[in-house]
Amino acid sequence: MVAPVTGDTSSNWSHTRARVGTTLRLTFPGRRYHATPWGNHVNEGLIEWPPSPWRILRALLATGYSKLCWPAEGPPEIAVNLIRKLSTTLPIYRLPNAVGAHSRHYMPFPQFNKEPALVLDTWAQVDGEWLGVHWPVELDESEREMLGKLAYQMGYLGRSESWVEGELVEDEVSLEEFAVAPDEARPGSSWEQISLLAPESAESYASWREERLTDELSKLPKENARGKPLTKAQSAKQAETLAVAYPKDLIGCLQADTRFLHEGGWSQPPGTRKVLYWRPMDVLRSAPSRTRAPRVEASPVEFVLLAMAAEHNNMGSLPSVVRTLPQGELLHRALLSRFTDGDVPAVLSGRDSTGSPLRGTSIHQHIHILHLDLDGDEHLDHVLLWAPAGLGGESLQAVRATRHEVAKNAKRPHRLAVAASGQRAELLGLRSGANPQLADRLQRVLGGVKGTQEWISLTPFVPPRYLKSSGKNSLEGQLCAELHTRGLPEPEKIEIVRLDSGTGSEKELARKARHFIRRRARVGMQPPIDCGFVVKLEFSCEVQGPLLLGYGCHFGLGAFEAV
Q1: Which of 427, 446, 465 is the endpoint of a domain?
Q2: Whole-angstrom distance, CA of residue 283 vs CA of residue 347
Q3: 546: cis peptide before it, omega within 30°?
Q4: Does residue 293 sit within a domain?
Q5: Which of 100, 178, 92, 105 lies closest to 137 in space, CA to CA?
Q6: What angle, rounded to 10 degrees, do the helices at 53-67 and 141-153 form?
């Protein structure tokens, strides 16, 4: 319906001196970028690399609506000015090393009695480097602040599988590595030309729209079916219907969805133009380079947070919270199964080189597996792996390679994905814009930034030895002994929460604790007493979490959270 607008698309960049402008740094934590160039079918196996200027601006607008809660009437004035400024010029790119990859899927059509159709899923595999986008345009302080917020909150670029983390670069940037640009002359024999979709400037689109509407209105009939002249109301309605087919401004063009484009018969989104960019021919290799730089071993991390997902995203089919212990054991077995030669790191096995359990100061330095219900629906949806000795090298690689976890009565294993990893401070800084409750519950398990003085059972505490009425084997004595082995102070107050005491929420904890599974599988040591207690601990100073005590504490029992 609209033809590409031709014109001067050259940039005449001087990469060594052009330092003024605005730069975004984009990284792909999932290491994948999925996007099909405009005008191409997904089965052609093409990748839009780098992302087109039109796609980036649409992603910024979508982030504003989904994360910054813009009103349905449209973006705020600052955001409108920002988008208009970025659309007046063409960006240049710094491309990281990437490999073109694809998978094949055969989609069945049983209802049509047809043969399965082959569908290609193509992506760019981006490992560890960042994509730079630089616009040679100056923004004022409020516009830079808005762009920084949008980049920080951006969740994906391209398809929803293309997770992205954005950052506005505040320092002066050297553009020597920003080589992908819309220059007229070919930079060299090893370069190829690609077409990217870019937005028109707001003024150019407004002028084109006015001319197009005037031309279309002149073609409309001036008489009705009976041959009588149209009334003013009928003419106005004709003009209004025609105007709906053309977005009123550049923001409307960027927000046009696929259905609008199909119904309007647009062969190219309104308000866009095709621009020819030069990029190196080997920017998307068909295989990883054989001459890779030496692999830098990642520093050990204390925590890894895994997200659980059920088949078909049916979160109600995830395991119940009462199955914390068996799920911890099953995941532990899956981690150990990664070591077929039997040489399991002590941080995962909890045993030394002779096969004996760790003792002394190392007794609780190996991994703790705590399944969590962070969204409060009584189903386990995350797993917190905590190893005071640190997970690194082979142990961290085994965690990342474990993609599934089995569960009782589940038809298929649940999917696992690394949601975060790092030290305690980094997990406390996690953000969750879609559901702030997740981050709040995780902070309670960790005890907050400085720790907390009051703790209450999240999962029941099972005594590790036979109970006696007094002395070191009493319930209080065993709790104090468990705290001592972890280098923590004795509490000033220990209170047992029962069904006939405590507040309503505490009674609910005591009721739920009766249904938790408290016995390990046959291969594991059984508890001396099959009884779980809900306990409140009050310390004289702040104590940092996680806090896991008693029998089965390395598989999720005896976990506490901040009151």
Answers
A1: 446
A2: 40
A3: yes
A4: no
A5: 92
A6: 80
The DSSP call for residue 112 is G
CB atoms within 10 A of CB 322: 18
Phi, psi of 131 (to 5 degrees): -100, 130
3 state SS of 302: strand
**Residue 552 and residue 464 share a domain:** yes
What is the total count of domains within the chain?
Answer: 3
Taking all residues of the chain, what is their mean pLDDT, rounded to a whole number? 85
Query: Phi and psi of 475, rounded to 5°?
Result: -60, -45
Residue located via tokens 């707001």:
202
Domain that holds residue 545: 449-563
Query: Is the same domain home to 378 and 401?
Result: yes
Of 394, 408, 413, give the one whose Cα is nearest residue 349. 394
Q: Tell me how far apart the 2 most distant CA atoms of the chain are, in Å.
A: 106
Q: What is the pTM (predicted TM-score) of this model?
A: 0.52
Task: Kindly state the helix (H) or strand (E) to which residue 272 belongs, with its residue range.
Answer: strand 272-280
Residues 253 and 273 placed together within one structural domain of the fold: yes
Angle between helical axes of 202-219 and 232-244 (0-180°, round to 10): 140
**Is the same domain home to 57 and 115?**
yes
pLDDT tens for the chain, 563 residues long, are 544 444 444 444 444 434 578 999 999 988 999 999 988 888 888 999 999 999 999 999 999 999 999 998 999 999 999 999 999 999 999 999 899 888 888 877 665 566 777 888 899 999 878 999 999 999 999 999 999 999 999 999 998 889 999 999 988 778 888 989 998 788 888 899 999 999 999 999 999 999 988 888 888 777 777 778 878 787 888 788 888 889 999 999 999 988 888 888 888 999 999 999 999 988 887 765 554 445 546 688 999 999 998 876 677 788 899 999 999 999 999 999 888 777 889 999 888 888 888 887 778 899 999 999 988 888 999 999 999 999 988 899 899 989 888 887 777 788 899 988 889 888 887 766 556 678 888 899 999 888 999 999 999 999 999 988 888 889 999 999 999 998 899 999 999 888 776 677 787 888 888 889 888 876 667 888 888 899 999 999 999 989 999 999 999 999 999 98
Handedness of CA 189, 194, 199, 203 (dihedral sign): positive
The 8-class DSSP code of residue 526 comes to P
Residue 467 lies in a domain: yes
Q: 328 and 276: one domain? A: no
Query: Exposure pattern of 362-399 as b/e (b: 16+ CB <10 Å)?
Result: eebbbbbbbbbbbeeeebbbbbbbbbebbbbeebbebb
Q: Which residues pair with 107 in a beta bridge?
A: 117
